């Protein structure tokens, strides 16, 4: 079986201060639920001694993706990268691997990019995946920005 690799992503212009915005991205386990409660019901650490692995439960604003387990592989001043290890993204959309990266704001633009592998016969599923992930990414970044502007 030969997997196909696909890449996609979104860019959102933020109005809040980039360093504050980035701090909230780095601490997203705590802040996404507060800033975007309609999209994130809970983000928990199954093993509190391992802050790199978290389980995300999505709220009513996420119609098709309800849960995922993420492993954060990099959380630096430049980027936050995570890999999906379980949940709807892998199962529902029939992707073999899924990795995403959020980049520190560049000239007030924040990028959230993702890469995944799938079998050619599952191409229809991944078109839906790109649309669903793009919606989650844009809502998350925009609503976090709005939350920070109000603080």
Description of the structure:
The protein is an alpha+beta fold and 151 residues long. It has a single domain (15-150), classed as Alpha-D-Glucose-1,6-Bisphosphate, Chain A, domain 4 (2-Layer Sandwich). It is built from 4 helices and 7 strands, in the order βααββββαββα. It has helices spanning 18-26, 28-35, 88-92, 123-150; strands at residues 4-13, 40-44, 53-58, 67-75, 79-87, 95-103, 109-118. It has a 7-stranded antiparallel beta sheet with strand order 1-7-6-5-4-3-2. α1 (18-26) crosses α2. The radius of gyration is 15 Å and the shape is globular. The model has no long low-confidence stretch (mean pLDDT 97).
Write the layout of secondary structure elements.
Blueprint: E1 4-13, H1 18-26, H2 28-35, E2 40-44, E3 53-58, E4 67-75, E5 79-87, H3 88-92, E6 95-103, E7 109-118, H4 123-150
Antiparallel strand pairs: 1-7, 2-3, 3-4, 4-5, 5-6, 6-7
Helix pairs in contact: 1-2
Pfam family, one: Bet_v_1
GO biological process, one term: defense response
Helix run count: 4
How far apart lie the N and C ends? 51 Å
Sketch the major β-sheet: 7 strands, antiparallel
Indicate the percent of residues in helices: 25-40%
Order of helices and strands: EHHEEEEHEEH
Structural class: alpha+beta
Output the radius of gyration: 15 Å
Order of strands in the sheet with most strands? 1-7-6-5-4-3-2
The figure for the number of domains is 1
The CATH homology group name: START domain
Tally of extended strands? 7
Architecture per CATH nomenclature, i.e. the level-2 architecture:
2-Layer Sandwich
- The gross shape turns out to be globular
Beta-strand percentage? 35-45%
Q: What is the CATH topology?
A: Alpha-D-Glucose-1,6-Bisphosphate, Chain A, domain 4
Mean of pLDDT: 97
Overall CATH class: Alpha Beta
Low-confidence stretches: none
InterPro entries: Bet_v_I/MLP, START-like_dom_sf
Pfam families: Bet_v_1 (PF00407)
């Amino acid at each position: 079986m030969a997997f196909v690799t696909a890449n996609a992503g979104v860019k959102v212009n933020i109005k809040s201060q980039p360093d504050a915005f980035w701090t909230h991205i780095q601490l997203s386990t705590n802040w996404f639920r507060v800033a975007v409660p309609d999209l994130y019901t809970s983000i928990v650490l199954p093993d509190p001694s391992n802050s790199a692995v978290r389980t995300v439960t999505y709220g009513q604003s996420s119609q098709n993706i309800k849960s995922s387990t993420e492993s954060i592989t990099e959380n630096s001043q430049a980027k936050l990268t995570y890999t999906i290890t379980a949940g709807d993204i892998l199962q529902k959309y029939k992707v073999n691997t899924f990795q995403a990266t959020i980049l520190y704001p560049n000239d007030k633009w924040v990028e959230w990019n993702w890469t995944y592998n799938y079998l050619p016969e599952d191409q229809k599923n991944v078109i839906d995946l790109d649309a669903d992930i793009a919606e989650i990414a844009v809502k998350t970044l925009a609503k976090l920005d709005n939350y920070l502007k109000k603080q």
